[in-house]
Amino acid sequence: MAESVGIVGAGITGLAAAYVLSSKYNVTIVARDLPGDLGTNWASPWAGAVFHPQKHATKAQQEMQAKSFKFYWDLAQKDPSSGVKFYQMTEYRDDQSDDSNIWYKPLMPDYNVIPQADLPSGVTLGLKYSTVAMNPLLLLPWLKEKLVAKGVKFVRAEVKSIGEVRTIAKSKIIVNASGVGAKQLAGDESVGPVRGQTMFVKTDFSELVMMEGSEYTYIIPRAASGGVIIGGIKSDRVDAEVDIALKSDILRRVNRISKGAFKDVDLNAVTDIVGFRPGRKSGIRVEREGDVVHAYGVEGAGYIYSFGIAEAVKGLIEGKSFKAKL
């Protein structure tokens, strides 16, 4: 009989872990929020969810990102109903002038550097490459459906301890993919919510554009939605109130990197999105502690790391070596 594994958390990290583990283990997911829920107390449904490689990453983190990219790239080819779709990425930066330290050059298909003469004012480096973006409102239910078909059980419960998860899941081994909940479940005081505010805009614009460096601005198309997500911001605020002034600032920045493609947008007609990313001051944690495998702290990069973290979790469960401190 297959060994049982309990997973706490049904965000993208928990679902990815279940997907990878379910071929070998009896998996039970215990979570307060499940795919299909739209509450603001969890991040996964509200993410921009684009595979935009994280520049500052250790070798282990780079490997996890690469594994996750391969999963989503293959999924976009095999099953468009998953909400994963191919896009051309335009990445702008104003904090460097060449790509000598861009580790993902060999990873991203069709990678090339944009000529300086074609860059917007203030941008010092521009890159183009092929990537994927995910519509979480399609992908999360798709994953749940596939997991149920694989025999994975879902239990809705708000737990206060790993012991409760172990009792509910009837599993000795627990994967802690609880996001912000890890502050309590793992006693990790470096964990906390990172506020994000974006807007969904109905538009025919279908380009994927990111700006990083002195600012964090993006345009992310959402498959089968008829629009894009525009943002962004990272904030220590913990309220869910929409910041009206920030909406105007986001629109100004987005127009700058899109040659005014959104100049006619009525800010009263957009859909405001406020969500809380599962942050951790000391960064991503993927390590085993007794019979608990911790997998949290991804902040806004959950979709970028998800299936790579899942493979690392599987390795830790099976006693394979993995660099604990990322």
Automatic annotation (TrEMBL):
A Pfam entry, by short name: DAO
Binding-site list for D-dopa: Y218, R277, G300
Limits of the FAD dependent oxidoreductase domain: 5-313
Cofactor(s) this protein requires: FAD
Transmembrane residue ranges: none
Entry's Gene Ontology BP terms: D-amino acid catabolic process
Keywords (A to Z) from UniProt: FAD, Flavoprotein, Oxidoreductase
Positions annotated to bind FAD: V159
Family per similarity comment: Belongs to the DAMOX/DASOX family.
Gene Ontology cellular component terms for the protein in this record: cytoplasm
InterPro entries (UniProt xref): DAO, FAD-dep_OxRdtase
Protein name, UniProt field: Related to D-amino acid oxidase
A GO MF label: FAD binding
